[in-house]
Amino acid sequence: MDFIVGLAEGFIGMFQAGGETFVGLVTGIIPLLIVLITAVNSVIKFVGEERITIFAQKLTKNIILRYTLFPVVAVFFLTNPMAYTFGKFLPERQKPAFYDSAVSFVHPITGLFPHANPAELFVYTGVAAGLTTLGMSLGPLAVMYFITGIVVILIRGIVTELITVNMMKKQGMLDSDSK
After folding, report:
1. Global confidence as pTM
2. Residue 81 belongs to some domain of the structure
3. Where do the TM regions start and end (predicted)?
4. What is the pLDDT of residue 53?
């Protein structure tokens, strides 16, 4: 009998935990995202979408800056997950690669700038706990995470863009001369 009661309580407890998570989202991340989206859209309207698009196009003409500086700026200023909206300023063929770069950078940035992705800070702090226990400084770890992250997002961005362009050409979405 105790087994059945425990099973029933565990079953309803699962839904109670889901409800608590949902309430946490409704009172936490969802309003934050709405305010961030509103603020970013307001800045875009104030500055002018054409100016921001021109700035983004100039910045992203260079493939290295496109998959290093552009995602770093997006993640630093807009944080995760709002950073991905920067992709709207890029041509379709570059959007998947930008997303790949930005999403790959939300962890490496947390050591130096925890505001960029506080929900995933546990990854960095888990590794950092070992160094702290050994009495070692966390500064070099944070810097190495950051630098390694930039190298990784550059490689991922370039590879993803090459794959995307190749697939778009095969599907007739790009002519063979455009890139």
Report:
1. 0.70
2. yes
3. 22-44, 64-84, 142-163
4. 79
